[in-house]
Write a structure and sequence with these properties.
Strand order of the largest sheet: 1-2
CATH topology of one domain: Amino acid/polyamine transporter I
Number of strands: 2
Strand content: under 5%
Distance between the termini: 65 Å
Largest sheet: 2 strands, antiparallel
Low-confidence stretches: 575-595
CATH class of one domain: Mainly Alpha
Helix content: 55-70%
Order of helices and strands: HHHHHHHHHHHHHHHHEEHHHHHHHH
Number of helices: 24
Length: 595
């Protein structure tokens, strides 16, 4: 059985599982649709949170980034890991105590303002759509690389699957689907890593193989990789050409952006209590760590294998369907040469990998500078390509494809829940149509999800100019860090923060960060002009502080919040004193009307 059979087998099997779960867990109420009825077990919720959190950026793109950026790519690993810890310990339990299951709902009630709620909806939609564009690109990469379909066709297939289980099942269907997706994802990520670690170092544990000696040689794997890449003119793998401030800024933007991500925050409302949210967060961190501690090893193995198989390989011209690859490769080997590997030709057909024979000698040169003949190299392909590069069995390759799709679809579904709840709950029921029934709200939520799927697919088809998956996702984190994190943090821990300060903070954070990203990605692409040397991926960290300062200053210059709001804020950090505001707790003071 070949690679194609196994790819179709695992993709069809997992997609059928997801659809089956969605039918089994159909949402019958708004409570089911938004927060899965508040009754998900903390361990299962931790698994679903890990799947929601570890998107295509984590599964597909992060290892590719670290592989070709070396130490500089580790900002994504550090920022996302630290960010989840920050969210789990600092904000999630307190937000769960407050009892609002969407960020705009929290903002609207905490800042007693319809205007603040509306701006929070805009921020959440900006963040979510930017994030989901990266996920859809990941879907396109997975399908186009292994199922022989075009990039955009792959996105359309992914849209159809997400449509079924997100629109039908809501958060209840999404949650249990994400549990299954986590199992697929982590198995697909670790199995190839174990095989490749054994091949290169003889150590079956990738995390230890990463720092072990190369098999049969008296040199560590990282030392050999450093030697290999520097011989080709590249910077040492363990070095970076980023400024230290930019490294710090990107890491900070990813960390604090995590704490403002609506689709992650909402997961803590699917459990029954704040204590269950803490347990859930702990389990999620364990599940996330399994993949994140494996990623550096996968990255180093990919870079070493790529150089070994591509540099000084004889190129075979033409598409695989038009040439007799095996015969030409055998002829090259008979002459003592090294043929370009089959996996390279497969990915070349997708347009994500390509070469230009600059010197006309028919042999590929992979090096730094003008002599580099690998002229197209998309970082997002390397987790998917790694098993093929290492010549692993076809079933492993098929499993990795299913894992990559699980990663992209799980986060896309979580983001769709944020978008649908922002439209149906925060805009419609809480703002414009306050007499809407539960049934009408549920129908509106499903309609919003369906519309969001279509828009997300369109955005995924048009992400080429934005960059690779992790970079696109980093923009979403920067937007969240600058616009949502300051007002969530100040709303929980500073009772004097008022609606005027929140509105000013959100507007400044969103407009300044989006403007900077747009300008330096589409208008002026010269890194020398970056402010303070900070890249578009890291600017959200800088504007986060400016946004927080503006919010504090405006709050101090305007009227203090009503006393009942200040009392509410004082009670939020005390577990057990105030649970779901506006819910069933006895003795709960009514909220003032939003202006």
């Amino acid at each position: 059985m070949d690679q194609t059979f196994w790819t179709y087998f695992f993709v069809v099997l997992t997609f059928g599982l997801y659809i089956g779960i969605a039918i089994w867990a159909k949402a019958g109420s708004t409570d089911d649709f938004y927060v899965a009825g508040h009754d998900v077990h903390p361990t299962l919720n931790g698994m679903a949170t890990a799947a929601d959190w570890m998107s295509a950026a984590s599964f597909l793109s992060m290892a590719g980034l670290i592989a070709f950026m070396g130490y500089g790519g580790s900002v994504y690993l550090m920022g996302w890991t630290g960010g989840y810890v920050l969210l789990a310990l600092l904000l999630a339990p307190f937000l769960r105590e407050f009892g609002k299951f969407t960020v705009p709902d929290f903002v609207g009630d905490r800042y007693y303002s319809t205007a603040a709620r509306m701006i929070a909806v805009v921020c959440a939609l900006f963040v979510s759509f930017t994030y989901i564009a990266g996920q859809m690109k990941g879907v396109g990469v997975a399908f186009s690389g292994f199922l022989g379909v075009e990039f955009n066709t792959g996105i359309l297939i992914g849209m159809a699957i997400v449509f079924v289980y997100a629109v039908w099942g809501g958060m209840k269907g999404v949650t249990y689907t994400q549990v299954a997706q986590y199992c697929v994802m982590i198995f697909a990520y670790t199995v190839p890593a174990i095989f490749i670690s054994l091949i290169i170092t003889g150590n079956p544990i990738p995390q230890l193989g990463f720092i072990s000696n190369v098999r049969g040689e008296d040199i560590s794997m990282l030392q050999k990789l450093n030697t290999v890449v520097t011989d080709l003119g590249f910077l040492e793998y363990t070095q970076t050409n980023k400024t230290m401030f930019d490294v710090f800024a990107i890491t900070g933007a990813l960390m604090f952006g995590t704490a403002g991500l609506p689709h992650v925050i909402i997961r803590f409302f699917t459990v029954s209590s704040a204590s269950a949210a803490r347990v859930s967060a702990g389990w999620a961190l364990v599940f996330i760590a399994i993949l994140y501690t494996t990623a550096p090893a996968v990255s180093a193995f990919a870079r070493l294998n790529f150089v070994d198989t591509v540099h000084e390989a004889t190129y075979i011209d033409g598409n695989l369907s038009d040439i007799d690859y095996d015969a030409q490769a055998a002829a090259i080997e008979a002459d003592g040469g090294k043929p370009i590997p089959r996996w390279f030709k497969e990915w070349e057909q997708t347009g994500l990998l390509g070469v230009t024979d600059k010197d006309g000698d028919g042999v590929i040169t992979y090096s730094a500078g003008e002599n580099n003949e690998v002229t197209k190299l998309d970082n997002d392909i390397f987790v998917m390509a790694n098993p093929s590069i290492a010549q692993l069995p076809g079933w492993v390759i098929g499993l990795v494809v299913a894992g990559g799709l699980a990663a992209a679809l799980s986060t896309a579904a979580g983001l769709l829940m944020v978008i649908s709840s922002a439209v149906s709950h925060d805009l419609c029921r809480r703002t414009f149509f306050k007499k809407m029934t539960d049934k009408q709200e549920l129908m509106t939520a499903r309609g919003a999800s369906a519309t969001a799927v279509v828009l997300a697919g369109w955005m995924g088809m048009n992400t080429a100019q934005l960059g690779f998956v992790a970079q696109v996702v980093a923009f979403a984190f920067g937007l969240a860090a600058a616009s949502l994190f300051p007002i969530i943090f100040l709303g929980i821990f500073w009772k004097r923060m008022n609606k005027e300060g929140a509105i000013a903070s959100m507007l400044f954070g969103l407009i300044s960060t989006f403007g900077y990203i747009y300008y330096f990605k589409f208008v002026n692409t010269n890194p020398a002009d970056w402010w303070f040397g900070v890249s578009p991926e890291g600017i959200g960290f800088v504007f986060m502080f400016a946004s927080a300062i503006i919010g504090v200053v405006v709050a101090l210059m305007t009227k203090a919040p009503p006393q009942e709001i200040q009392d509410l804020v004082e009670d939020i950090p005390i577990p057990g004193t105030r649970h779901s505001h506006g819910a069933v707790d006895e003795g709960m003071a009514p909220m003032p009307a939003a202006e």
